[in-house]
């Protein structure tokens, strides 16, 4: 499969590096609006061609799929354009700005008989599969705690009065969308949509720089903390009446799974790849190689549930994006 990339940030670097280890996945073109940026990025990764015109990229008949890693607010626009040009789409998290946009791109992909996939690491990790296998050993779940906090390299600019994309309502930024989304994928992937959600956020200049989303279920609650204005060790703790699971380094990487039930403790790790993006790309490749639209649609249902929860959480904190209008 020949892939064209949209975006030149560090996540695209990691995507390209990981794709080298997945058979039949070849990045053959890249797009940036700035020619020097596009040229430099293409040279850096030894990519065959680059484009500064999005229509030219999407009109390239040698390209089968598009990887969208633009600023958050542009995920929807580029995904729609790619699908309308008959391209399969691998779209970075957060899937879109809101549930209305998510529903539209899902319907469009189904109408065009195209594969659409959200690039979210967590739910495709082997260690996440181990968690799913062992969660029943904890007995009834009562409490889930997840924290992914990372001091943003752009936060100092924000404090100085600038508005980097990741802290901009115009670009659908903020801690919930950009970083806490991993925690929500983790929880919703295991337990489904919550009965209710609220978000207590630190809001500065109309954007959340950190906050805690509280997801309530029948008999248990999950707190999802995410910050771009402070740092912390990442973790997930899942507490049941018989024991607990500790996910080392948190939901975004699931680097190790510690299970303690009674006096018994086990430490599990089924992951061999340092670049964890490998696992989501491999899942995408397998899905498409098997022409498995049922699996594709099941994953899209999950992405929609996460987006619906994100939207409700934002609303409870009074954070609005321009795309919500």
From TrEMBL:
The record, for Gene3D superfamilies, names: Dihydrodipicolinate Reductase, domain 2 (3.30.360.10), NAD(P)-binding Rossmann-like Domain (3.40.50.720)
Q: Which residues form the Gfo/Idh/MocA-like oxidoreductase N-terminal domain?
A: 1-116
A single Gene Ontology MF term assigned here is: nucleotide binding
For the GFO/IDH/MocA-like oxidoreductase domain, which residue ranges apply?
137-245
User: Which residue spans traverse the membrane?
Assistant: none
Q: Which Pfam families match?
A: GFO_IDH_MocA, GFO_IDH_MocA_C3
The entry's protein name is: Gfo/Idh/MocA family oxidoreductase
Q: Which organism is it from?
A: Paenalkalicoccus suaedae
Could you read off the lineage of the organism from its UniProt record?
Bacteria, Bacillati, Bacillota, Bacilli, Bacillales
């Amino acid at each position: 499969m020949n892939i064209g990339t949209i975006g030149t940030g560090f996540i695209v670097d990691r995507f390209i590096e990981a794709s080298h280890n997945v058979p039949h996945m070849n990045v053959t073109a890249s797009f940036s609006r700035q020619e020097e940026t596009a040229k430099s990025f293409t040279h850096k990764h030894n990519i065959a061609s680059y484009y500064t015109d999005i229509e030219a990229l999407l009109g390239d008949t040698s390209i089968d799929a598009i990887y969208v890693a633009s600023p958050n607010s542009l995920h929807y626009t580029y995904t729609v354009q790619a699908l309308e040009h008959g391209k399969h789409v691998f779209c970075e998290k957060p899937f879109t700005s809101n549930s209305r946009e998510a529903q539209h791109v899902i319907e469009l992909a189904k109408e065009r008989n195209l594969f659409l996939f959200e690039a979210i690491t967590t739910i495709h990790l082997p260690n996440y599969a181990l968690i799913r296998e062992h969660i029943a050993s904890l007995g009834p779940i009562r409490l889930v705690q997840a924290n992914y906090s990372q001091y943003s390299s752009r936060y100092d600019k924000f404090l100085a009065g600038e508005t980097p994309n990741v802290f901009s309502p115009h670009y659908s930024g903020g801690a919930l969308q950009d970083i806490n989304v991993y925690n929500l994928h983790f929880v919703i992937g295991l337990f489904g949509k919550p009965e209710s959600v609220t978000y207590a956020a630190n809001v500065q200049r109309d954007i959340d720089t950190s906050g805690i989303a509280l997801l309530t279920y029948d008999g248990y609650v999950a707190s999802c903390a995410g910050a771009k204005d402070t740092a912390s060790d990442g973790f997930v703790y899942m507490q049941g009446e018989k024991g607990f699971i500790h996910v080392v380094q948190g939901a975004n990487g699931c680097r190790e799974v510690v299970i303690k039930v009674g006096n018994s403790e086990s430490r599990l790790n089924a992951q061999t790849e340092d670049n964890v993006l490998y696992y989501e790309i491999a899942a995408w490749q397998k899905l498409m190689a098997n022409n498995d639209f049922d699996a594709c649609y099941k994953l899209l249902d999950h992405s929609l549930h996460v987006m619906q929860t994100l939207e409700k959480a934002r609303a409870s904190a009074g954070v609005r994006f321009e795309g919500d209008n």
